[in-house]
DNA sequence: CCGCGATCAGTATCTCGACT
DNA sequence: AGTCGAGATACTGATCGCGG
C-alpha cells in the first residue's frame, strides 16, 4: 500500500510544513514560521518529497521555487488545514471553561472602541480566556487571518478574500469642527469638501476612508445622507459613537 | 563570493515488543 | 499493568557545497 493510502503511516505535521514552505517559498523562513530549525525543515521537506514522489521545490538564489505539483496542492492544502483548524476550534469550545489565547489585530482606535466592552464580556463569561493584541497593516491583518496567525482582525476593510468571514461591528460618524468666528459654512459642500483639504496622514498610501467618502462630494456637490449597506448594522455591544477619527 | 539548502555526527525522544 | 531495552525517528549545531 502506498503511504498516502494509509493516514496512520503519515506524519500529518508534514502538511503544516508544506503549507509553510508554499507560503514562504524559502526554507529558512518557513522553519522560523513554525518554528523549527532549518535542518529539521530540510528533513521534513525530504520526507515530503519521498511521500509525494515529487521534488516539490527547486532551489534558486532567493529560496525555493515550487514545482507544478506543489502549486497544484497549495489551494486544497490550505482549505484542508482551515477545516482542521475549524474542527479543533469548534468541537469542544466552552467559553466559561476555555483557557485559549486569542490573537487579535486592531488599531489603537479600534482597541479603544472594542476592547472595553469585550473585556467586560470576557471577565463575566470567559475568565480563562486571554487576548494577545497586536497591530498590523490591513494587508498584514488579512494575511494573518488567512494563514491562521490571527484569530480576528478589526479594521476598516475594503475587499477581502472570499474565504474570510467578516461582519460589520458598527458604523462611524464624523464631526467637522471650525472656528465659529470665521464664518466658514460647515456643510458637506463647504470649503472642507474641496481640495486641498486632505485627511490622509500618508498621501502616498491609498486614500483614507474620509477622503474616499468625500471624493464624490468634491465633484458633485452635496450628497444624500449615507445609508449603511444591507440590513440594520449591528453595533459593538455598548460601544459609544465616537467623534472624528484622529489622524 | 555570498546566500541558503543539504548533509553529517551526536543526542534526545518515541515506539514497540519482551518480560515480570 | 508496569518496566526495560533496542531500534527508529527527529532534533540540533556545525559544516559542506550548489546556484546565481
Topology summary:
Elements: H1 13-24, H2 27-33, H3 38-52, E1 57-60, E2 63-66, H4 68-91, E3 101-106, H5 108-125, E4 130-134, H6 138-146, E5 152-154, H7 209-220
Parallel strand pairs: 3-4, 3-5
Antiparallel strand pairs: 1-2
This protein binds a DNA duplex (20 and 20 nucleotides) through residues 26-28, 36-46, 59-64.
On the 0 to 100 scale, the average pLDDT is: 68
The parts where pLDDT drops under 50 for at least 5 residues are 201-207, 217-247
CATH architecture name of the domain at 9-89: Orthogonal Bundle
What is the CATH H-level superfamily of the domain at 9-89? Winged helix-like DNA-binding domain superfamily/Winged helix DNA-binding domain
Tell me how many strands there are: 5
What's the gyration radius in Å? 24 Å
How much of the sequence lies in strands comes to 5-15%
GO molecular function: DNA binding; DNA-binding transcription factor activity
Region (Disordered): 200-247
Domain HTH lysR-type: 10-67
Biased composition (Pro residues): 222-232
